[in-house]
Structures are given as structure tokens and as C-alpha cells.
Amino acid sequence: MAAMLDAEGHQITVLDINSESFRRLPASFKGIALMGDGTDADALKRAGIEEADTFVAVTQGDNRNIMAAQMAKHLFNVRKVVCRIYDPLRKELYETLNLEAISPTTIFAKLLRDKVVGIG
User: Fold this and answer.
1) Residue 112: in which H helix or E strand, if any?
2) What pLDDT digit, counting tens, does each position of 9-25 carry?
3) What pLDDT is stored for residue 46 in this prediction?
4) Among the CATH numbers 3.40.50.720, 3.40.50.620, 3.40.50.10190, 3.30.420.240, which is that of 36-117?
């Protein structure tokens, strides 16, 4: 996603606790890649969150994603905040907290259902 947005001309900063993750970025990536924890306020500040208009939390953990999303939205007042939540039940709960959440589990289940019943 970072590479796609970067290729479209958006200013992108990727923050990750694992430097190996940056190896997946293409050589053409013009954005910034920083080591840091997205649930750490100082790391978010180093990444420029105070100037960000969008924040996306896509770690492997629902709890980390929701915590980072809440910080971005409520502590740093980022206008657009989206987080990935694997657990569909949690997704619904977080949306009641006015956080935009996407569940790839639900999306994939719907795609499979559509293939099985012949839709699409």
C-alpha cells in the first residue's frame, strides 16, 4: 500500500519496529522509512504525525492497530484514520468508538462466498 500511494505521488512515511519490513519497499520508493513503534507518541512525532492528514495502522495485531489508531485520532487529531482489524467482532466494536476499521477476514470471506455461489 505504501508503494502504491508513493507511486501516485503521495508523501508517505512508513514506521515499523522491524527493519526487515522495509526490504519489501521498491527501490523507486521516495517516501521515508523509519524504525519505531506506532504506539509510541515520540516515534509518531518523529514520523511527522503532527503534520499528517491520514494515518493507517496495519500491523499484525488488532490491539496494536487500535491503540495506534486511537492515538492518531484522539491525541494527534489526524483527520483520516483507518486501521486493519482481523477480528470481525472487534471491528464492529471499534466502529462504535468512531474509528474506521477494515476487516480483511470479512472481506475475504465475502469474496470466497461470491465465488462459491457464482457471484462475480
Assistant:
1) helix 104-117
2) 999 999 999 989 999 99
3) 96
4) 3.40.50.720
